[in-house]
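Q: Can I see a sequence and its folded structure?
A: Here is a first one.
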Amino acid sequence: MLKAFLLSAILTVFASSATAQTLLTIEHDGVSVEYDLEELEALPQTKYVSGNPFFDGEQEYSGPLLREIFKDAGLLEQDSVSMRAINEYTINFPVADASKFDVVVATRINGKLMSVRDKGPLWVMYPFSHHEELSDPVYKGRTVWQLVKITTQ
């Protein structure tokens, strides 16, 4: 009985820490703001079906709009930010893109949470199928998968 109680307690601790895992850190003016999945899902969400340069066919991408994350973190007045992925891939991202297009920080593809293996848990995704100008290769480079950090420059 004691073993069952201890096992239950340990599993509860691990389950609680897993749900509160930081997925995205934003550093701005010397302050760090961390977002877990629940906090990201509390922001206004969107979903759309679109193709992308990395997959054949169209997929449904859903998650918070990037501009809502920028708004929440006080970044809308910035010209650009630096985005970094798990593998240290880093790009300069123009903040205006978040308002010009419905750029989503996808937490799900086809309704399923993304794992690191699936290019998640966060993937910056443009609605490629909705705007012809997004066929320019520059936008492909801005689709940061496994996003972990946004920093002001």
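Q: Show me another, different protein.
A: A second, unrelated one:
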Amino acid sequence: PDEMTLMSGTVVISTLVVHSLLGLRASKRARSAA
């Protein structure tokens, strides 16, 4: 159970980080374009 929890937690954190990075890039592009 612990291993599964760690794996799921890592996946969730990684996805959140990726989405945040993509969001920052998108916002920067939008600001520069605007």
